[in-house]
Amino acid sequence: MPLDIFIQVLLNGVLLGGIYALVAFGLSLVYGVAHILNIAHGTLLAISGVVASLIFLKTGWNPVLIIPMIVIPVFAFGYLFHAGLLRPLARRGKHDETIGTVLITTGALIMMSDLTGFAAGTQQRNIPVRSEMLEMGDIILPMAQIWILAGIVALTLALHFYLKYAWFGKAVRAVTQDAFGAALCGVNGPRARALTFAAGSGLVGVAGVLYAIIYPVDPYMGFSLTVRAFTIIVVGGIGNLAGAMIAGLMLGVAEAFTAFLWSPKWAPAISVILLLIILVVFPRGLASWRKA
Amino acid sequence: MTLLRVDDLEVSHGPLQALWGVSLSISAGEKVGLLGANGAGKSTTLGAIVGHYPAQAGRIAFDGRDETRSDVNSRLSRGMALVPEGRRLFVDMSVRENLEMGAYLAAPRRALAQSLEQVFTLFPILKEKERQAAGTLSGGQQQMVAIGRALMSRPRLLLLDEPFIGVAPLIIRDVMQALAQIAADGITIVLVEQNIHRALEFVERAYVIENGRTVLEGSRGQLLNDASFGAKLLGLD
What we know:
CATH architecture of chain B: 3-Layer(aba) Sandwich
Oligomer: heterodimer
Strand order of the largest sheet of chain B: 6-7-8-3-9-10
CATH superfamily of chain B: P-loop containing nucleotide triphosphate hydrolases
Helix content of chain B: 25-40%
Order of helices and strands of chain B: EEEHEEHEHHHHHEHEHEEHH
Distance between the termini of chain B: 34 Å
Number of strands of chain B: 10
């Protein structure tokens, strides 16, 4: 493979993997703090992407302006969804709560996909930004992709520093590691769970806009993203940002090369195969390396 | 002056009633033990005092104000802190972060630097290990983190649930001395402990809980001389 094509495919994979990692990290934060396996997580990305593409089509605005228009409502939606539908389940027993959250988020997936399909159509859409080309010798890369890469890096760093140094970030980690211990310190558990659910949703909103700039989105594509996010969490560890990034990049790059060398149809299978291999070789996930 | 008063407290875990009538009266500055066999209801009593388990009947008053219906945070900010059974540390977070979490509420947060200084004076080893993940510490050091974390909220009443489990015998003496120092600083201490002799080494007075009820109360001397005390503790009568 010529170097310029190799670099282009690699960059595609890195972008895809970075977006997967953001999606997965949101899911794993929510799981770690609230013990909710949000089946509709990827669907929120799909719908954010569809809505962002419609806004772009109507206005032609820079996607950077569209991001807050998506993130703020998605954050609010996440908060209300948790407060209205998921939090009440905590009053029931543990099993009822687990099954209840899976049922409710699965129902949300179906309703959100169908409503969006009904309102906006089921066809694939994207955000066709016109982009300058960055030329470095033989290698030509669209500037839009460089900006997306910068956005992913900035978001990851912001998340890292927030969780490491902000009081609420520390509280989120504390609740993940020992909810009772955190409650004894004065962390308001229900509020932390609702805000984390909202933040995980907001994160997926940003990812949706970035995704739609490079790949087409449609209202029904969400579940396969959720499956990829599960793979990344199993590999990278719950609540582990670095683990999610490494696993996400591995998956994204593997998919990009599979799609290029073989067929895009096979790309989604990679996550399942990767998951199986890793579960056989490292039954406790890659994070167990660190502990060993 | 009575700091903590518990009257006929009843608590259930789901369908199982754990406490059937616990009554305590603890004065400011006291060192009091809660003794009893495994499963007698000692941990549940502490959990109910800090508001983790709701009271079904009875009354809890702290420093003259009724707290029976208030939540964990309001009791914490009024000056109660619990060092729970099993320590419940944030094992992947550093020692320093664990301590900082103890000062999470607004008022203790303002005194963070001073409180950290005090905890590090009490447990100098924690200063040396402040950047280490709490889960990598020895049992005794983890217990020091748990006690330190509770102190970070600047409590007036410190409740300790079996703080010597998993602590090496030599270190137990250090922890005991630290508790004596905490008490000397004017913090009231309630200690739940299964080892009667160890408990009576430290406390001045103790209650015996049996099957979810307080059945006996007395000073160290009274309890050591009471013939029924051993039997009550072991649940033999």
